[in-house]
Amino acid sequence: MNGAESLVHTLLANGVEVCFTNPGTSEMHFVAALDHIPGMRSVLALQEGVATGAADGYYRMARKPASTLLHLGPGLANGLSNLHNAKKAGSGVVNIVGEHAASHIELDAPLTSDIEGIARPVSHWVRTSPSAETVGKDAAAAVEAAMTAPGQIATLILPSDTAWNTGGTPAEGREAPAPSPFEEGALDTAAAALDGPETLLLLGGTALTEENLETAGRIAAKTGCKILSEWSNARMERGAGRVAVGRVPYPIDIALKVLEPFKRIVLVGARAPIGFFAYPGKPAVLTREGAEITTLAKAGADLGGALSALCTTLGAEQTPPAEVAEADVPEAPTGPLDLDKLAACIARAIPRDGIVVDESVTTGRAFSPATKGAAPHTWLNNCGGSIGYGLPTAIGAAVACPDRRVMALTGDGSAMYTVQALWTMAREELDITTLIFANRSYKILRGELTNVGVGNPGPRAIDMLSLDRPALDWVQMAHSMGVDAVRVTECEELEAALADGLSRKGPSLIEVVI
Amino acid sequence: MNGAESLVHTLLANGVEVCFTNPGTSEMHFVAALDHIPGMRSVLALQEGVATGAADGYYRMARKPASTLLHLGPGLANGLSNLHNAKKAGSGVVNIVGEHAASHIELDAPLTSDIEGIARPVSHWVRTSPSAETVGKDAAAAVEAAMTAPGQIATLILPSDTAWNTGGTPAEGREAPAPSPFEEGALDTAAAALDGPETLLLLGGTALTEENLETAGRIAAKTGCKILSEWSNARMERGAGRVAVGRVPYPIDIALKVLEPFKRIVLVGARAPIGFFAYPGKPAVLTREGAEITTLAKAGADLGGALSALCTTLGAEQTPPAEVAEADVPEAPTGPLDLDKLAACIARAIPRDGIVVDESVTTGRAFSPATKGAAPHTWLNNCGGSIGYGLPTAIGAAVACPDRRVMALTGDGSAMYTVQALWTMAREELDITTLIFANRSYKILRGELTNVGVGNPGPRAIDMLSLDRPALDWVQMAHSMGVDAVRVTECEELEAALADGLSRKGPSLIEVVI
Same structural domain for residues A147 and A199? Predict the structure, then answer.
């Protein structure tokens, strides 16, 4: 058995069943191994940012890692920004990166680069396997690292001779590491802190499962505290029948206002709120001065255990949860679309058990309240702020959950970053309905110019933030990669397009001109 | 004056007149400074790989660096693989990367990352400027680093408070550093080594200018030595009236055969030939065993001086150069296209002073001999092996040389990597004719499977290297980004499309189905 074969056997034995890939010469033995060892679904991407973003989406929905197979340093580099997003989301990913044979590295060939150096800023775990014999155990260690709660980026670099040499030994399956315990010593302080509307229970990570939200709802009902989530959530269960949780807003002035009332804050899987960016003359810490902040559980800890223990300490186990959303979808809007009507159309369209991948940077700020009473669904945010996360993450979610419908909501500027994702959606016939909000600008940056104190920007500055010269034609873009598409400007057109897209087999795209 | 303004003034004073950019919030003060300080051409890219690839192409043709303006670690990360290519090409690039304000970094916001760590593997020079006061002198140092021969990657990281704070002081223009001297001590050895057809003068880098090639041609005529260039050349002057130089072939077995005769090799700007990849059981060093290799000048040294001195030592100053290409274009081929007919069409179409950016990984192996006698032109190769270099590099070449025509030759797989480049071509109305060779596969990898010893690949392996499910529609792809396009399968269609594309204002695309 060669090293490449021991890799595939080890990944399969450890529950890694999907490989998002764009291989090259140095990975050909892995391609051959994937070919003749059954069990691994290989999903080809035309740019590595699609592969790594898909691995992020897969982990969020499957709660276990996929692998990526990337070509040397540049292949890894192309996937780096979506690995950054995955890292910030707490997603586990097993990157397999090919490398030249050891004897070749010292010759400094064109594709030679410092792969470990490229990997390190986005990886929790990096290792270069020295021989075919070590590939199996190193792969098992990589999966274990990736499965360490909440999920980590593990990058295993495999020189091509470790793939083609014999002596490969598959490693056996290991148990996923248990999450770390929560801060039991903080339990009484946390329970005492939550007392009325001036106190906040701030949730993040896996505190946003349906079950954990219900526990949080009981705590809120018992204590009168408010519940919020972080602005960016890797995955939140939402919709009718679930405890509805608002997000700490992105715009700094609004966030400061929302957080101003809270004198005591308890964190479960969340971090104390800070600004996404620094702005001249504005605070970066968003909580009121002197707010008492208690960390009951950090990301990666047993968040369900923390919330249950808090609930028990407060004697709220039987209290009916507060803030349970009632089924409530708006009337069908009519006529030309605006942001509120768009939000209403989306709320009406979300199917039961739908997965919404949200990269609607500016367009989507009204979506959260509007969709509170929609059919029960799962909502994914971009946690690392690097745009181009939406379409790839939708691929991963669809691969993880073939029985669920995926809606990808994205601005045009964001979608262009990893537009190659459309081709993979078509190739894999994934049930993804993509909505492109075509405002034909980096609209968020128009506001940010003002926020950082640049008043009255001139024509060249505005031009640098505009995407309308030429306008992107998303219908032709989608068709060019084998995805059906339609352009809409009216509510009725959007409703029809959503109904069609969400009922058909395979992907479709709707260009929403706003 | 704020730091951002001092940056722009310093770049302009040091001859940096173009900025390839995709800015974000942390770069808004630079956008404002670019807006109100005249002199810097800002070229917007929809993905940073386009921006950095364009900077590579710009340097090759302008012989001076452009700047890039990139958004934090992820923006730099997206540009990393084309920076790898630029580094290997010896291109100078000044990357300006925004960073959070210092006080914000410690809060670990979503977009916080180790920017220096991301920059280092592809940069010769990395610095984070600590204050508005230091931005000017650090920017001047960055340009100086970028201009150090043959050209280097300089990455200057600017926390947003260094941009918005006052105290900015522009630095004055500096002279570009002189190239290092060649190995004068090796001159006699080199002169003695070149003696008949068993000796090779191997050229790279700026040894491939028209003038330096002529000098090499005189040396060859005088000594009977052969001349070759490296496989990957950042820029080579070619065509009728110029000394024609073949490339060391990419396929390892052919390269070994071509190099087998040479007992003595003199290197001027080139490195001793090695394989692009390692293959099981094949050598990585391509020269014959015991070949005597003399390095007269490394990349970055005074290559023109080295060749002139060698020529003088050999008394060849008045010898008419060998291997001067005669004007010789093939007859117009007819009927369905094949690789030889394609090469003939391209040879006929290359306009006087045309710039050919070549990323025709498999399709283009016949182009080099076929175009030897075409109109005088400049040919650019991918030097780092990371695909997706072609379309962005064409942008940079067109921006550097607005009076010259650019032809971008690229495979479909490569073009998809940075397909967003088409939009920038349309926006800037660049005179670029793009030929997409649509073989609908990663064709090179089919061969590489065999080369690394994987015989008889199964259907899943072949599927992982195929781009035909679905086929990409390049005409719609181009249209979606505002570029006119046509699909051709016959020689006559291709000739007509080339004639049209090369005579019109602005970009066009030809999908060549092969």
Answer: no
